[in-house]
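Homework help board

Subject: predicted structure for assignment chain

Our instructor gave us this sequence and asked us to write out the predicted structure in token form, then describe one feature. I got the tokens but I'm not sure how to describe them. Can anyone check?
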Amino acid sequence: MPFREKIEIRQLDLELHGSCNLKCRMCPHVIGRERDFLKKLPWAVFEKIIDDAMAYGVQSVSLHGSGEPTLNRDMPEMVRYIKDKGVACVAFTNGLKLDEALIRRLIEAQIDVLRVSAVGYDRASYHHWMGKDAFDLVRENVRRFVHLNQSLGGKSEVHLFHLLTQVEQTAQEIRWYREHWVEPTGALAEIWMMHNWSGGMKGPYDRKKMLGSPQRRSCGRSFSPLLQVRAGGLGSHHGAVVACSLILGRDSQGVLGHLDTQTIREVVSGEPYEKLHSAHRQKRFDDIPYCRDCDQLYDFSESLVWTNIPGRVYGESKVAKGVDHRKFVLTMESPSPP
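My token output:
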């Protein structure tokens, strides 16, 4: 199959470690992730991927993929490697390992944004959803990051990422999250509705039912200038490119190639990628097992419940400015092979 003439990657989502040190109730890790995708990303593969991505205009690298990045001891050095390329760097963490030493290393590496996932508006609800009684620990870690960043003169930010647990108490949860997380830590924050992990898990509420009888449309993710890369891969591989971040728990179904042995151009020009694009262009979502029941096929702007982060809007990437999936839903601008 011929190579694509034009490839644009503004955002690279790169997982550093496929395992996690929490078993959160709303995450497929609580059920168990496929063994092939529990690996640590080797430095050599990390370096190969970053260097390759630079050729396609990458503006931001997000160190996430649903594994916990702080389990990879090379994380601060990886942040520094990215920043030395002149690229913005963001990371997602549950904050458990965010002690003072690690905070200092990340600030010194000049990480742009550290996003801390904390579901649960008080100690009891945090324990229920995150599976560990660590509300006070994580909240103090976030507060310490904000304080150290200020005292060190750093330019890093820490953002809290919360999820709404009950629709019936939306107003109360917004208030509780602000009182128990945002105000005590001084961090920026956002609250989102839960999603169903591409149909792989049921949550406390159903977006589709809330919308009535909506029409499905492409989520636009595979057409946007974003590349999703896992730490692990099939068999002995690392650096699996997958169709979507939300297929956690069944990553093997969405593998489009492996960047330990292939180039980015080879993967995005390949037949698996084109089959995915074709199905979304023709709205044949039922042909794709991990798309069939995904609630991201329904437009639901209310999924962004509350935020005090400047410029944050529904539909746009939380990492790279200008990567708005809605635009690609409408135009399907990704170039197709001739």
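Reply (TA_rk): Your tokens look well-formed. For the description, you could write something like this. The longest strand covers residues 157-164. That's the kind of observation they're looking for.
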